[in-house]
Predict the 3D structure of the following.
Amino acid sequence: MWFGPTETGEVSIRISGPGTKHLTRAAADVMTALRTIPGTLDAKQDWENYVIKARVLVDQARARRAGITSQEVANSLAAYIDGAVISNYREGDKSIPLVVRGEPTERQVLTALRNVSVFSTSSGRIVPLTQIADVRAEWVLSRIKRYNQERTVTVSAKNQTLTALQLLDQLRPALAALKLPDGYRWEVGGELEKSKEAQANLFKNMPVCFALILALLVWQFGSFRRPAIILLTIPLTLIGAVIGLLVMRADFGFMVILGFLSLAGIIINNGIVLVDRIDIERDEGKDPYEAIVAASLARFRPILMTTMTTILGLTPLIVTVDPLFFGMAVVIAFGLFVGTVFTLGVVPVLYALFFRVRGPAAQG
């Protein structure tokens, strides 16, 4: 399962391998499959389009007869196309390089390369390039990118209506149909990959955090039963959160996970407040049953007001269907509403069960 901020509906597929031919063909197949999915926009690959490249093949036999070396050919071509510094012009304390190179109109014409003159430093002769080399034109990729030192082409697209997960699910049949030779592979990149990494980082230290929370609660209350009562209310919040996700049709993503964690913290805080109040009532000399009732009535309004203000604060994010925080707001609002009911109703019951508190009828 993938978790992460998938609201953008953007998918990136990396295809890696040693040869450009198979990579470009696979990238074209993936782009074709993406364009067939309704609502998909801007399907592209990062190697861009083919460009014309001039290949100069020096005939070493002819070059030796003319007294020309390959280095001299390279120098002449570099000076013609990129320019060569022949001197410096000084104006005061400034030094301005003087660069000589071919005319702009000639540099843009492939056939003009045939007329480039190559100077021989050994014989002092000037030889036309066509006398010692063959100039050929060929279509090549404008850029070849690598990922982990391996040739990799990345295909990406964005969908107007589908989330990244939904778009990937519709693309999987086309990815499975790719006929990649041995040594080639595809993998998911972009937002989904970052989401998976974020999820791993998020859950990596979560057991340690929960252990610290438990240790803190045990240290605060000086017992194991009271922290157990508080922590047992956390799973009950899933009921409201799941109902909220289903009713509001919110996508399960990274922000939703953060919402669950925030919700757990709020519910723990409410449980601490209620259990602590019960202990205060008992320390004042009240009967355990009366202490539970009095604490529940005393903490009912503060807990309820905290819940309502939090829900009202999240309402704008839910009403406007915020693209980033909608799922998190739904989880906290619905989960907190149901969790508050459980806190006020279940915590007193659990306290009575764990401490074997009897009601007036059982005592009589």
